[in-house]
Every structure is written in C-alpha cells, then in structure tokens.
Amino acid sequence: MVIFSDLDRSIIYSNKFLDTKTQYKNIEIYNGKQISYISLDTLKLIKKIQERGMFIPTTTRTKEQFSRIRFCENKIFFPWAITSNGGVILKDNKVLESWQKKIKDIVKKSEDIESMVEKFEKYKDLPGIKSFKIAEDLFFYIVVDYFEFNIDMIEEYIKDLDSNNWKMYISGRKIYFLPKGINKENAINHVVNEMGISDFFAIGDSSMDYGMLKSADTGYILKHGELLNQNQDIDISGLKVSAKEGMKATEEILFEILNENSSTVVMNL
C-alpha cells in the first residue's frame, strides 16, 4: 500500500484546529512557538502503514518548511517525500535530480517567475497583503488578511495568469501563484514510475490536492477541507469523504486504508 498525503489540515493541525477530545502532541516549532500538532493515533497509524507499505508526504511546503516537522523525533522516516507543491521530490532526504531536470522543462512552458513577480510588484503594498514569499524559485504566494484584502484587488493580474500558463490557488490566508505544470499529480506520476507501482491512495483537503486525489486509485477528502466547503462545482465522483472532521477524520481515513489492505485488523481506534 502506498499513500500520498497532504500534511497541513490533513495530517497535522495548527492551534486553530485542535481537537480537545483527542490526544495530540506538538510536532513543529517555529520562531520559538509551537505551531503544528498531530494526534497520537495518527502517529501510530503512520508507523503501522510504514511497516506494511509506504506513506509519502505530498505538501505545498518548501523543503525548509517540511524539514521543520519533527517526524524523525517520533521515529518516522520517509524514503520519499514531495514538497513545493510537486516542484521538488526528495528520495532519502536528497533532491531527486531526474525530477529537477523535468521541472526545468516544465517551467519553460510557462512565463518565467521573474517576469510574473515583476508584474505583481504594483500589488504588493495593497491593504491586507501581509507578506510575499517566493518558494524554491518556482512559484510565489501572498499571505492576506481578509478583513482588509479582497481578491478583486488583483483581478487584473488574475486575468493574465492563463495566458502566461500560470494558475492561482486560494488556501486559507495564502494565495498561491504557480506555473501550471507545478502540481502534486505530476510529481506523483514521476514517483510512481520510479517505484514501479500501479496502485496508490491519496489524502487531501484543499483545491491544490484535487488533481492528485483524482489521479489516485482511491482519493480521500477530509470533510472539513476547503476543497468541499469552497468549491461547490467540483466533481468528487469516485472520491471518498471522511465522516468525521479534524484530527478524527485523519485517523478515520488512515485506519480505513490500513485495515482494508491488511489480512487482519492490525490496529483498533
């Protein structure tokens, strides 16, 4: 069994989404603050999955942001990981060069990032844009305060994205701008070919996960996710939606995958 899974709000959760009825622990500290948590049962389930198959983190976080999550301290190690929304593949914690070569070809089909950033310069100081970040020299994103910011403020920029072969995703307070070929499903396809496997599962909660969920043999959406709650017109046929929300939804999905793909029940919740 091979599982490609998003991390934030799919496996780990910020303070805002903690479930006080669930046992959890901190798994990420940044600038001296505890910012991400994981349920104890989720840790156990991932370990069980790793014993019988492979769990592959598939995140929009950059390499550096991914490295902050302290899986290793919990004795969980990943032979494969996908970061930067598919822009980087890590094998044994090293950048996979065969994918980097393909990424160079992929981004050539889109307007270069320097040009796209330059075009965005006039919007950087708009009310409500709290920060602007470039990720891995592949894409960029802004963090906004919706009390001040309205997406219509950058409508002109958004209209030009398609003609430049770029795409926008909204994920909470972050708005991402990426070349169209930089996505999780393309990276997954490369890993699947490298591993020589045909079947896999995928878990996610946001619009940035939709492509990988649809490409999986079985895709799981967390009930609380933005993918369901902000995208009423999406086609979720063939996808499974968790019955629960939050940390309990994560446990529910991992438990189902683990026990449905084992000859005996290997763990009870």
Automatic annotation (TrEMBL):
Signal sequence, renumbered to the chain: none
Listed Pfam families: Hydrolase_3
Record-linked InterPro entries: HAD-like_sf, HAD_sf, TPP-like
GO cellular component, one term: cytosol
Any GO molecular function: phosphatase activity
Top-level taxon: Bacteria
Protein name: Hydroxymethylpyrimidine pyrophosphatase
